[in-house]
Amino acid sequence: MVGSSTLSPTTLRDGEMGWDVHGPCSYDAQGPRRSPAGDAWGELARVAPEVRDRLVVRFGSEVLGWCDALPMLVHELAARWNLDLVAAGGGGTSRVFRCLRRDTGASVWLKLTPEPLIAREEAEALRAWADAPSVVTLLAADLAAGALLLENVEPGVPVRQLIWHLPEVAALLRDLRVSPPVPGEHSVLRPLSHRIGFLFDLAARRLAAARTSPVAPTVLGQARAAALELAAGGPVGLVHGDLHPANVLSGPGARMVAIDPRPTWGDPDFDAVDWVLGGVADPAMLERRIEELAALVPDLSPQRVLDWCRALTVLLAVPRMCAGRDDAETRFLMALAGG
Predict the structure, then answer these.
(1) In this predicted structure, what is the pLDDT of residue 106?
(2) What digits encode the pLDDT tens for the residues 267-306?
(3) Among 16, 86, 133, 336, which is least packed by CB within 10 angstroms?
(4) Element holding 202 (H helix, E strand)
(5) What secondary structure does DSSP assign to 163-193, as a single string?
(6) If one looks up domain 2-151 in CATH, what number appears?
(7) Distance CA 15, CA 13 (A)
(8) Name one Pfam family in it (predicted).
(9) Which residues contact 337 (CB under 8 A, 6 or more apart)?
(10) Yes or no: domain 159-337 corresponds to CATH 3.90.1200
């Protein structure tokens, strides 16, 4: 079965789009070109107005102080971890910098968020998955500062740009399930119901901002109730929480490598939804894809995956419909959602 990354880049996520960088710092054989002030990356670390606007939407106006202080924080972390900045990017919850280690020249990624809890949650999950080859490696962290240092993934092409196959997805899902089966005493991760509430609140805000709502509020409310009911039952494991083709990179040996988790404790089958729905436009194809994936991933429940698809598909449909899309896939998503 061949999948694709044809889903809208605003599916089950909250603004993170993988490690895309928005533009490299000038770099030549002598290293980064320095400004007249001697700062090799001062401009790179500054937060542009459009990025500030995006962060304000997510965190509120108080994030502007963090934006102002970010260049100094990046300077301190780069000095501590022996890094030179090369490029900058990020999504709706973080700034991400591609860096070179000054001693080895190896590429690494410095990720900073204005909300330290986000970094703490990601660090806890990455440490739990430390032995999983399908998850990016955490090299260092300053959790009070909301900072993570992450290993580079090679070749690192986002899977949304590639043709992918369900056996590759199955290997990824199997690796993600090799983790502590229940929350530890000191876990900072919240239950899956919290993640669901956030996603549906985000969809509701998108609908409220639309000139004409393409989805009836009752459809969204019924889907939220169904998702919360699923979250209240079933198995409990470590869930990536934002597993879609933009948050998975091509790794060594064509292995998929997950990045940017929004981890929770809950039903691991939640992570399969984007992969079985991608490119699907009829119920028979969806059921075939679920059965094929279930045959490759032990303990994956075909019925629960189908139930998750029915409950969450409205979250995939809303951004597509707000963008004016009326293709067969979008119509199927809305039909599956009961809209």
Answers:
(1) 97
(2) 999 999 999 999 999 999 999 999 999 999 999 999 999 9
(3) 133
(4) helix 192-209
(5) -EEHHHHHHHHHHHTSS-SS--TT--PPBHH
(6) 3.30.200.20
(7) 6
(8) APH_6_hur
(9) 215, 219, 223, 310, 313, 314, 317
(10) yes
Domain ranges of the chain: 2-151, 159-337
Length of the chain: 339
Total-model pTM: 0.89
CB burial readout 257-291, b (16+ within 10 A) else e: bbbbbbbbbbbbbbbbbbbbbbebeeeeebbebbe
Place of tokens 């320095």: 34
Say if 2-151 and 159-337 have the same CATH topology. Answer: no
Are 100 and 106 in contact by the 8 Å Cβ rule? The answer is yes
Beta-strand (E) ranges in the chain? 2-3, 21-24, 27-28, 31-32, 83-90, 95-101, 107-112, 138-142, 147-151, 164-165, 237-239, 248-250, 256-258, 264-266
Instruction: Report which of residues 217 and 191 the model is more confident about.
Output: 191
* Three-state DSSP class for residue 284: helix
The verdict on whether omega for the bond into residue 36 sits within 30 degrees of 0, i.e. cis, is no
**Strand-strand pairing, 21-24 and 95-101:** unpaired
Please report which helix (H) or strand (E) contains residue 224, including its range.
helix 217-232
